[in-house]
Amino acid sequence: MIPIRYNVRSLAVRRATTLATSLGIGLVVFVFAGALMLSNGVKKTLQTSGNPDIAMVMRAGSDNEMGSNMDEPNVHNVLAAPGVKKDEKGSPVGTGETVVVAAMPKLGAADNGISNVLLRGVRDNVMAFRPTVKIIDGRPARPGSEEVIIGTRLRGRFKGLQLNESFDLRKNRPAKVVGVFEDGGSAFESEVWVDADVLRQAYGREGSINVVRVRLESPAVFDSFKAQVESDKNLGFMAVRETEYYEKQSEGTSLFIGAMGTLIAVFFAMGAMIGAMITMYSAVANRQKEIGTLRALGFSRRSILTSFLLESTVLALLGGIVGAAASLGMGFVHFSMLNQASWSEVVFSFTPTPQILMTALTFAGGMGLFGGLFPAIRATRVSAIQAIRG
Amino acid sequence: MTLTQFAAKNVLRNKFRAVMTVLGVAVAILTFMLLRTVTSAWTTASDFAAKDRVVTRHKITFLMMLPKRYIGQVRDIPGIKVATYANWFGGKDPKHEHEFFACFAVEQSYFDVFDEATFPAADKERWMQDRRGAIVGDVLAAKMGWKVGDKVTLESGIYRGEWEFNIDGIYTTTRRSMDRSQFIFHWDYTNDNAPAQVKDQIGWVISRVNDPSHVAEAGATIDKVFDDRDTQTLSMDEHAFQASFLGMMSTVLKAIDAISLAIMVIMMLILGNTIAMGVRERVSEYGTLRALGFLPKHIVTFILVESLVIGVLGGVLGIALSYPIVERGLGRWIEENMGSFLPYFRISPVNAGIAIALAAALGAAAASIPAYRASRQNVIDALRRVG
Amino acid sequence: MSNQASAPLIKLRGLKKTYTRGDESLTVLSGFDLDIAEGAFEALMGPSGSGKTTLLNIIAGLDRPTAGTLEVAGERIDSLGESALAKWRARNIGFIFQSYNLIPVLTALENVELPLLLTSLGPAERKKRAETALRVVGLEQRMGHYPKQLSGGQEQRVAIARALVNDPKLFVADEPTGDLDRQSADEILALLEKLNKEFNKTIVMVTHDPAAAERASVTRRLNKGALE
User: Fold this and answer.
1) Range of A191's domain?
2) How far apart are CA B14 and CA B67, in angstroms?
3) Does pLDDT of C63 surpass 50?
4) Is the pTM of this model over 0.90?
5) Which of A314, A350, B323, C191 is deepest in the core (most CB within 10 A)?
6) Using CB atoms, which residue from C88, C105, C118 is nearest to B9?
7) ipTM
8) Mean pLDDT of all residues in chain C?
9) Does residue C145 carry a pLDDT above 90?
10) The domain containing residue B303 runs over which residues?
11) Chains in touch with C (≥3 Cβ pairs < 8 A)
12) pLDDT band at residue A256 using 50, 70 and 90 as cut-offs
């Protein structure tokens, strides 16, 4: 076996070329890892948004909460269905919500346009209904008042969405932000929670709601719950598990990011591999005498092959490590995207995991291996006579 | 042989490496073209927006509706040539659960305002007479397998229940200001059995103005009419309207631009590396040229030209490859499946031009450092080097 | 014997060349005078490190002396700037290198044409002159061949044609036969002699080869930076 020192020193000697090639690979790894981290961030946001034992009931044929239209009295029908959990007092655990998407002016950076924010009209029992939601700054809103709480991801992104600031629900209908809440990275963190009646009055939706959410006794009773709720064709309701709802919501976005990510990964990788190939072919061409000498000294063809494959892989990994390390910096970046399904902005983050980093490094190694394969094969064809010819 | 030809011939010094570099540049340019086409497809709607149309909607959110009587008042405003209204239906075909397309309940003058939608006059006549009639875009019809005469049932969360429609016509567009996947039917039909929430209300008003050069003022005029009412309006010319949607995707567009930048950097690294390698191998040659009387500026020019040749060849190849990919395979798939987002996924000559210009500019930039260093080389030291 | 009656083509006075690296300085040429007549065929010989190549480089305008003056054909060369020197070289010097230094991607004809690209001649005129030069060295049959298709001797002849094509006064040759076998070396030396005797070209040649020195009209020896 040719000692790996030979390869490392060879790389060090051709410093400029090594730097250029591994930088290229590093850039590819950076983008690749970034895409994986974003995809993971999207999944995390939209998956933690769903609770397996919460069921959502909406008008049949609705794509999302916004498109569903139900009457207030219907809430009771839904709460009375079998499988709904009861609290200590024997009342069913559930809440009706109204959802509105409002255009609000954005803040910050170069973009001062307007974008859509999701306002959710909630009942007094919403915090009890969702124990995972925690107020991290300020205090809860007083029921029936114009006080609102905002999700932590909205903070500072829109005009008026900051603690103790106000914004208008509509002309002459101000709302004051009294608290900021967190919910484990879920989609709710990109929402504003308003008192349901205040919201409905402001938007002329008295007496109607968009969705009823209930807590089931257990995820297993969902099917019978669904059957009951959907049985009345006159009412025309449909029930869906909250987890499935959010999965579907993210489908379009995930599909898009997945498609873009794959496109980018494939083409970038091709480019990086061509770069590695050029470098390694050149290395082999310049080291004909060296290789011939190694052969003359008795090293086998296979050891030459292994040696050069190792060199290209090390070259790629060098870049890969730098690229992966740099991608961790993306963890501080927040990415806001229009959620196709809800027409509102959701803020995603780049979420790194050890698996993603390993995948990125493996990808780098793979590029080095495949990029260096043909040059390494060419190296094995050099005969011992080159040692003398030079 | 001229000086430029001499410089270009140097590319042939290592044919294999030159070919691989051209390939690398081509891949980079191809990726760049695909990414830019995505961005362009998004901005198409805003770029091709009609110059004489104004969209008027509820001031607070487009999810809230306007009273129907507003259309009469808009029509009365001087300078408004014709106005129509439309409602978002939010419909789905239960037979194709996962297909999303835009459904609009419209007033009869819709196609006077959107005159880029073309279909046979006979079909339009039939539609006008048919309460349940629908006109659909040709891309949507192709995807769903619909033909004129078919009956389609849609479900809607907003307009509760099931609604039956007859396909009376299929439209295509003469301009890119309208996508080809819309499902359009009569407002009267769905309003009759609409829930109280949306009954007798319209989603937005679209007007065409007499004077396109003052389209923004027309919008302001409309809003003034409704300013002191309970329900206020927000009017935007079509370009601004589309641009506001884009604003919501601004981060994605920025990300794509950043990635496009990254691929160009990679291209520079590949090309620059190849040129640098070639320069290093040719030190004594440059020394000879200097001895013969060539000046440092000549050396720089030779190296830059060499880089430009490879860069432009790679650019042309990359663009040539992008055409079949976009115009045939990928483009068709995207238009059909993401048509509401990216309705016109085509290569634009402008993007091709930008790609070539970038390939050339970056090719020159990539070679600048090796070129500069080669020109500063001491002649005698250069001549001393062997081979 | 060189004709001492006419003014010398090359006049060196007090020529000194010193290299400094940090605190150390190395004197390669110790300061001497030298006249080379027009039409002379001079051989410069000496052990390695004697400074003969440095002297050649200075005469050829590739390097500048640290002290002293150099006059070629009445022009003061030692004080010219880089660009002026380059232009001067193109007009006045024909180079012949030990390893021929042909451009591998160019044919023989294109290699010979190379120096003409620095002039204002048109393409047709350039081609004509290049062909003529190749004819002088006897290689007009091979003008479309690439260097790798030529033997060492043929490559050197193309190089001589290239040196010839601008019709310079002075030829500067650094070990022109160093890489050649005996037969090819003799051919090249014969060619140089022809240039000198028939065309009255002045040739200054650095060489280790005694056979080459024999063909020259004057042989000078350098040792430790001084003429012996």
Assistant:
1) 54-217
2) 74
3) yes
4) no
5) A350
6) C105
7) 0.89
8) 90
9) yes
10) 3-46+250-384
11) B
12) confident
Q: Give the residue, A143 or A261, on which the prediction is more confident.
A: A143
One domain, residues A82 and A38: no
* Same domain? A30 vs A161: no
pLDDT, one tens digit per residue, over C115-134 is: 999 999 999 999 999 999 99
> What's the farthest any 2 CA atoms get from each other in chain A?
96
Q: Is A65 within 8 Å of chain B by CB? A: no
Interface with chain B: mutation pick from C28, C96, C105, highest number of B CBs within 10 Å: C105
List domains and CATH numbers for chain C: 39-63+81-227 (3.40.50.300)
Mean pLDDT for chain A?
Answer: 85
Which H or E run includes C227? Answer: strand C226-227
Cross-chain residue pair B293–C90, CB shorter than 8 Å: yes
Does residue A289 have a pLDDT over 90?
no
Residues B57 and B205 in one domain: yes
- In the stretch 58-77 of chain C, residues with CB closer than 8 A to chain B read 60, 62-63
3-state SS record for C151-211: CHHHHHHHHHHHHHCCCCCEEEEECCCCCCCHHHHHHHHHHHHHHHHHHCCEEEEECCCHH
User: How does DSSP assign B146-207, residue by residue?
Assistant: --TT-EEEEEESSS-SEEEEEEEEEEEESSTTS-S-EEEEEHHHHHHT--TTTTTEESEEEE
B299 lies in the same domain as B378: yes
Residues A65 and A41 in one domain: no
Same domain membership, residue B166 and residue B80: yes
Residue A278, chain B, CB below 8 Å: the answer is yes
What are A314-325's pLDDT values in tens digits? 999 999 999 999
What residue spans of chain B are helical by DSSP H?
A: 3-9, 15-47, 70-76, 110-113, 121-129, 138-144, 187-192, 215-225, 238-248, 250-281, 283-292, 296-324, 331-337, 349-375, 379-384
Show which of residues 188-207 on chain B sit within 8 Å of chain A, judged by CB atoms: 195, 197-198
Identify whether B139 is part of a domain. yes
Higher-pLDDT residue of B197, C107 = C107
